[in-house]
C-alpha cells in the first residue's frame, strides 16, 4: 500500500483502466459548468436593455452567482469525504439543469437573481468535487496532466458554448439560451448515470485506517494552503470579470456588435486553454526530470500571474481596440496556469480522507473573488467619467490584484516540504497527548 492508500506495483502506482473515460466525462461536466456561468455575461447587453438594469445592478447580478457558492462548496466538501462522488456529481448537475428553465419565459430581475443564486449553490462544489473524483483515478505523480484536462472543461465550455449561445441570443432570444443549457445539463446527467463510476484509488475508509489524520487547523494555516488561496484569488478575480463583463466591454466599451462580440469573447479562453495544457505538460515533464514540486508546481503557476498582471496593467496605455483586446486576452489568459498546479499541491500533503474537504475549502475561499470583482467593476463603471474610463480603471485594479497574488504564491508555495512538516507536527501532538493521558 502506498502513502496515499493506493495499490503499487514495482514501486509505482498503476493508473486504473477507465481513468481517461472518467476524465473525459468530468471534462464535459466542467464544460457544462462554465457554459452555465458565461451565459449572463454573454447576454449582458440584451439583459440590461430588456430589464432596464444599471451597471451596478448588472454587477450585482454577476456577483449573486457567488452568494452561496463558497458555503455550498464547504458543506459538500465534507460530504464527499463520506459519500461517493458519483452521486454527488449527479445531484449537482441536476440542480444546474433545473435552475436554467425558469428563464425561458418572461422573468423579472428578482427571478433572474434568485435562479443565479441557486445555480451558484449547485456549481460551488463542482470543481473541487470533480477534482477529488479525478484523483481517485490517478496517483500523485500522474495528476498534473489530467488536472489540466479537467481544467480545460472551463475553457471549452466557453469556446464551444459562446458561438452557439450567441447565435441563439442574436437570432431568437437570450431566454432560449438558458433553456438550451438546461437541456444540455440533463444530457450530461444521463451520460453520467450510464458511464460514471467511483475511482478505485485512495479509498477513504482504507485511508482513514492507514494514514495519520492532520488537524484541519494545521492544514488550513499551512503556508502552501494560504499561498494557493491567495494566488488563485487573483486569478479568479480576472476570470469572474471575464464571465460577467468581457462581452459588455466589447459591445459598450469598444463599440463592437453583439455578433462580433460573440466571436471576440472566445479569444481569452482559447489562449487560456493553451496556457493550461502547456502548464500541465511542462509540470509533468519537470517532475519526471527530478525537479521538486516547489519548482514544477509552485513557481510554474505563480510566475505567469505576475507577468499577466503586468501586461494587463499596460492595457489602458495602448491605443486601438485591437491592441487593447490583445493585452486583455494575454494578461488574463496567463492566470490559467495556477488552476493546474494548486489542487495537486494540496493533494501532496493532505491525507486522502481529508482531501475532499480541503479542496472544497480552498475553492470556497478563492472564489470569494467572484462576489467582489463583478460588483466592484459595476460600481467603478457607473461612477466613472465615461464608460471606457470605468472599464480601464476596473482592469487596472485587476492587474494590481494579479501581481500581488502571484508574488504571494512565489513566497508561500512550498508543497515539497509541507507534508513532512505537517506529519511530524501531527505525530508530536499525538505523542504529547498520549503522554499526558498515560498513567504515571
Describe this structure in words.
By secondary structure, the chain is an all-alpha fold. The protein contains 21 helices and two strands. Strands 1-2 form a two-stranded antiparallel ribbon. It is globular and about 65 Å long. The model is unreliable at 1-11 (pLDDT under 50).
Secondary-structure topology with pairs:
Blueprint: E1 8-9, E2 12-13, H1 19-42, H2 44-51, H3 55-64, H4 69-79, H5 85-100, H6 109-123, H7 126-134, H8 144-171, H9 174-195, H10 204-210, H11 216-220, H12 223-253, H13 258-264, H14 267-288, H15 293-313, H16 321-333, H17 336-349, H18 352-366, H19 369-383, H20 387-412, H21 415-437
Antiparallel strand pairs: 1-2
Helix pairs in contact: 1-7, 1-8, 1-9, 1-12, 3-19, 4-6, 4-18, 5-6, 5-7, 5-9, 7-18, 8-9, 8-13, 8-14, 8-17, 12-13, 12-17, 12-18, 12-19, 12-20, 14-15, 14-16, 14-17, 15-16, 15-17, 15-20, 17-21, 19-20
**Secondary-structure element series:** EEHHHHHHHHHHHHHHHHHHHHH
Please list the strands of the largest sheet in the order they lie side by side.
1-2
Rg for CA atoms: 22 Å
Distance separating the two termini: 37 Å
Q: In DSSP terms, counting alpha (H) and pi (I) runs of 4 or more, how many helices?
A: 21
Number of strands: 2
Question: Mean of residue pLDDT?
Answer: 86
Largest sheet: 2 strands, antiparallel
- DSSP strand (E) fraction? under 5%
Unreliable stretches (pLDDT < 50, length at least 5) are 1-11
The structural class is mainly alpha
Helix content: over 70%
Global geometry = globular
Amino acid at each position: 500500500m502506498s502513502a496515499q492508500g493506493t495499490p503499487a506495483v514495482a514501486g509505482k502506482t498503476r493508473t486504473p483502466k477507465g481513468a481517461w473515460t472518467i476524465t473525459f466525462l468530468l471534462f464535459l461536466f466542467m464544460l457544462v459548468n462554465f457554459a452555465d456561468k458565461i451565459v449572463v455575461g454573454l447576454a449582458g447587453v440584451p439583459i440590461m436593455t430588456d430589464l432596464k438594469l444599471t451597471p451596478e445592478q448588472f454587477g450585482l447580478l454577476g456577483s449573486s452567482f457567488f452568494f452561496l457558492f463558497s458555503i455550498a462548496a464547504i458543506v459538500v466538501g465534507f460530504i464527499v469525504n463520506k459519500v461517493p462522488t458519483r452521486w454527488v456529481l449527479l445531484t449537482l448537475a441536476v440542480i444546474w439543469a433545473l435552475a436554467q428553465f425558469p428563464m425561458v419565459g418572461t422573468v423579472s430581475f428578482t427571478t433572474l437573481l434568485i435562479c443565479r443564486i441557486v445555480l451558484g449553490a449547485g456549481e460551488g462544489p463542482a470543481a473541487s468535487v470533480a477534482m477529488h473524483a479525478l484523483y481517485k483515478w490517478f496517483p500523485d505523480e500522474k495528476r498534473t496532466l489530467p488536472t489540466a484536462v479537467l481544467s480545460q472543461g472551463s475553457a471549452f465550455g466557453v469556446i464551444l458554448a459562446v458561438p452557439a449561445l450567441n447565435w441563439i441570443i442574436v437570432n431568437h432570444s437570450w431566454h432560449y439560451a438558458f433553456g438550451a443549457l438546461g437541456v444540455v445539463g440533463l444530457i450530461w446527467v444521463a451520460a453520467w448515470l450510464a458511464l460514471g463510476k467511483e475511482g478505485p484509488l485512495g479509498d477513504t475508509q482504507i485511508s482513514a485506517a492507514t494514514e495519520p489524520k492532520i488537524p484541519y487547523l494545521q492544514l488550513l494555516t499551512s503556508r502552501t494552503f494560504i499561498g494557493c488561496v491567495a494566488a488563485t484569488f487573483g486569478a479568479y478575480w480576472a476570470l469572474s470579470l471575464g464571465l460577467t463583463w468581457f462581452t459588455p466591454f466589447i459591445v459598450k466599451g469598444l463599440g463592437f456588435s453583439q455578433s462580433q462580440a460573440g466571436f471576440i469573447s472566445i479569444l481569452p479562453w482559447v489562449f487560456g486553454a493553451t496556457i493550461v495544457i502547456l502548464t500541465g505538460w511542462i509540470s509533468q515533464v519537470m517532475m519526471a526530470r527530478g525537479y521538486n514540486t516547489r519548482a514544477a508546481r509552485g513557481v510554474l503557476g505563480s510566475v505567469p500571474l505576475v507577468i499577466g498582471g503586468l501586461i494587463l496593467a499596460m492595457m489602458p496605455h495602448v491605443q486601438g481596440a485591437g491592441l487593447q483586446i490583445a493585452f486583455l486576452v494575454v494578461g488574463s489568459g496567463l492566470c490559467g496556469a495556477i488552476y493546474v498546479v494548486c489542487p495537486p499541491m494540496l493533494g501532496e500533503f493532505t491525507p486522502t480522507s481529508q482531501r475532499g474537504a480541503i479542496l472544497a475549502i480552498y475553492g470556497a475561499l478563492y472564489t470569494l473573488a467572484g462576489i467582489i470583482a463583478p460588483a466592484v467593476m459595476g460600481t467603478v463603471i457607473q461612477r466613472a467619467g465615461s464608460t471606457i474610463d470605468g472599464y480601464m480603471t476596473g482592469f487596472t485594479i485587476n492587474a494590481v490584484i494579479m501581481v500581488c497574488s502571484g508574488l504571494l504564491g512565489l513566497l508561500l508555495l512550498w508543497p515539497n516540504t509541507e507534508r513532512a512538516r505537517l506529519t511530524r507536527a501531527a505525530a508530536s501532538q499525538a505523542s504529547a497527548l498520549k503522554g499526558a493521558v498515560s498513567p504515571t
